[in-house]
Amino acid sequence: MGLLSKKDTKLITDPLADNNPITIQVLGICSALAITAELKASIVMSIAVLFVLGVGNVVISLMRNIIPSKIRIIVQLIVVATLVIIVDLILKAFAYELSKTLSVFVGLIITNCIIMGRFEAFALANGPWRSFLDGIGNSLGYAVILIIVGFFRELLGSGSLLGIKVLGDPIEKTGVYAFGYENNGFMLLAPMALITVGIIIWVQRSRNEALIEDN
Amino acid sequence: MEHLELFFKSIFVDNMVFATFLGMCSYLAVSKKVSTAVGLGAAVIFVMAITVPLNWLLDTYILKDGALAWLGPEYAQYDLSFLSFIMFIATIATMVQLVEIIVEKFSPALYNSLGIFLPLIAVNCAILGGSLFMQSREIQSLGLAFNYGISSGIGWFLAILAIAAIREKIRYSNIPAPLRGLGITFIITGLMAIGFMSFGGMLTGGEAEETTEQTVATVAPSDKDTIEATEDAINLAKNEKEIKE
Lengths: 215, 245
Known about the structure:
A: mainly alpha, 9 helices, transmembrane helix (chain B), sodium (chain B)
């Protein structure tokens, strides 16, 4: 058994596939789409959300009995905003270039519906340890989609992964470019993120028929 | 002229939904029916028109580097911009509550149509996004900030209205089962975003005319298809009725 009981493990593994925050619960789409043109940005964004949601869930869970329910949204927003400011300042200090690429989307973690959704649905009703696991699980589910989308967009769009040119050099025509392969610049444009997520949803729902919705 | 340019730019070129993906959550969740979509869209325009100029005032007179200079020269060195997230979101959350209370008191009819959407809006990324973009694009005056708020709101309104109309029609088409609902909505939004990208040339002139004509041409037949599909469905329903009778 060890550290985690069966129920606790389920809290982490469930959001990874069958209850994924992005493809099933439709939460936190904005940032998932806007910053996924590069794999690196998607990874950093995932870590930021992991931190904010993990810590935020614990904080809200600890305060759940003293927050008056009328003003809970404002309290939740303040907690998230504080955590996001910490993330933003850390990014500005240690990865300035990246924080420029992410621009306002770091700030928009505040209104990322995953976070508010988990606070409302889980942290307000459960203890800190379970809330922490739930936060980690959901942000990992978010990270999985972000990383898949970022992987395909960077690979097909600019022929590189994490900035390393894995498919050869497009200008000197080495690697696969020698056979006449061209980068699909369209993948770097914003609309393709939507279509990529659409395809992920398609694949996921064909594998698991229970998830199919009627129009 | 400056106002007109910003107005059209925020509606079409920098459309909240299609260019920056802001407010996608409510955009996807509340777009099943045109009537609710109109309600939410109107509420977004309303709240953005209030919060963006308000946050502009906050940013210019309190948060910016050296913004406190109006208090006296010894305050000129303060830079409070790290507080902007928390200030903006607090303003938005309180304004939304305040607007809700005021509307409920003075216009129950408006409250009935907008009311249920107002709490949703506090966590709509489009609202906070509007204020953050207003800050990062360095909008110059209060008037422009007001203009930016309203026009971004209108852009969002147009987007949710369009997708709601398409989703009402698409119910009659034969979509692969796994794509139904969310999947096809994503792909349609992607296609609409590609269409909106053709507005990019609008303000630079030149080839803009050609590209917009193309989108009109490509959009028109698909509209026709959906109309035909609905007519087919209606005819089908009529036939079934007749058979039953």
